[in-house]
Amino acid sequence: VEQWEPISIEPVEDKERAVLWNEYVERYHYRGYRQPFGAYRKYFIVSRHGRGSVLGCLLYAAASWSVASRDQWIGWSKADRAQRLHLVVNNSRFLIFPWVHIKNLASKALSVASRCVPEDWQRFYGHRPVVFETYVDSSRFKGTCYRAASWKHVGVTKGYGRMGRHQGRLLPIKDVYLYPLCRTFRHALLGNPSAELRQQEVTQ
What we know:
about 200 residues; 7-stranded mixed beta sheet; 7 helices; about 30% strand
């Protein structure tokens, strides 16, 4: 990947590029494209080396309402989650184009996104996320790039839709990964310093 640096992510701001982004994801991502629910931001993964190349796509969107392993790892009660779910953002699409073969590009793109997306999200929506989440279908992928980018595997899903168990079991079981964006993420998510310290003791 060093030969292709600098790697950046570009927000998709205009309609023409949004149509192109949608077409790429619909054609080349195994889940295709669906209009995101709630807040979302689309990005192209770009190499600035030479004349530049578009290498893939990223989508960050509103977090899932209820994920037991995530909520337990954070230490959330239902009331905490209801008040502060907007501080968690979901990496719901991640696509490296099939003709792109660059070692370590995926983890590099995730690292770049962890620096750029929070600022862009705050500019666009007026609040800054403190944790990213994603769900990896372990029947297809090993989650290697997320682990390489220091995301934390915290458990698995139970196969419900993004709004919880009342929709019934709809989806395959997936590995749950989280990425804290700042050291004080639990304080922000719990609003309780003593609870934050207790949870840190459990996870260390």
